[in-house]
Every structure is written in structure tokens, then in C-alpha cells.
Amino acid sequence: MTVPADRDPPDAGDDAPGSPRARAQDARMAAAADRQAARERAAKADHEAGIGTRLGQIGVLGWMIVTPMLLGLLLGRWLDRLASSGITFAAALLLLGAALGLWSAWKWMQRP
Fold first, then answer.
1. Counting beta carbons within 10 angstroms of the beta carbon of residue 105, is it exposed (0 to 12), middle (13 to 18) or buried (19 or more)?
2. Confidence check: pLDDT of 8 > 60
3. DSSP symbol at 50
4. Angle of helix 51-83 relative to helix 88-109, nearest 10 degrees?
5. DSSP per-residue string spanning 54-99
6. pLDDT of residue 103
7. Which 3 state secondary structure label does DSSP give 41?
8. Within 13 A of 107's CA, how many CA atoms are on the CB side?
9. How does pLDDT run across 39-96, given as a tens digit for each residue?
10. What is residue 66's predicted lDDT score, i.e. its pLDDT?
11. Please, how many CA atoms are within 13 Å of residue 30, restricted to the half-sphere of its CB?
12. Is the sign of the CA dihedral 26, 29, 35, 40 positive or negative?
């Protein structure tokens, strides 16, 4: 067998497991796998929520604010009818419901 002059003949154990060349290839492969795993972790950490998720969050926030307001208004109207007091209880409990709803929405938005 003739070997072209521009190439060195391969050593018999050059690609054998444990050879310096095989260890270098293994190290490069491990480094490439580590880089790929780091890219995947970064992609998961930087994931931007989709439009559907954002719209769902807006809907939840809306109901978190509106529900206590409506319950306060309902209770206030009932108390106003019992006490014949105009809209005193309705207005007060509507504002209390708004404060409670806004506070709960704020707490929900600030959760980790």
C-alpha cells in the first residue's frame, strides 16, 4: 500500500479508546454537549409568554378587581334597602370592594 506524500500514515492505535486523539475528541464532544445544555437552560429561563397567556392574565386580573366590587355593591344595596339610607352603604362597600380587588390583584402580580 502506498501512502500519498501529503498525508502521514495513521498510527495503528490513533483512534483507539484512551488514545490522546480519542480523549481530545471526547473532551470536545463533552464541551459541545455542555454548551447545548446551557443554551437550552437559557432558552427556558428567557421564555416569553404568548399572547394567549397574556390575555388570560388580563382576564384574571379583571375578575379579581370586579368581583369584590360587585359583591360590595350587592351587599351595600341590600343594607341600604334595610336601613332606607339611600346609597350610603352601597358607595362605601363599592369602594371597599375596589380597594380589596386592587390589593389582591397587586399581590397576585407581585408573586414570584
1. middle
2. no
3. -
4. 160
5. HHHHHHHHHHHHHHHHHHHHHHHHHHHHHHT-TTHHHHHHHHHHHH
6. 96
7. helix
8. 8
9. 888 877 777 777 888 888 889 899 999 999 999 999 999 999 999 999 999 999 999 9
10. 96
11. 6
12. negative
Neighbour count for residue 65 (Cβ, 10 Å): 18
**Inter-CA distances, 47 with 17, 36, 42, Å:** 40, 16, 8
Q: 3-class SS at 11?
A: coil
Q: How far is CA 73 from the centre of its chain?
A: 35
Distance, CA of 75 to CA of 78 (rounded, Å) = 5
* Type of residue found at 94: L
The three three-digit cell numbers of residue 54, written as one number: 397574556
pTM exceeds cut of 0.90:
no
pLDDT of amino acid 27: 87
Q: Which amino acid is at 77?
A: R
pLDDT at residue 30 is higher than 70:
yes
Q: Is the dihedral of CA 56, 62, 68, 72 positive or negative?
A: negative
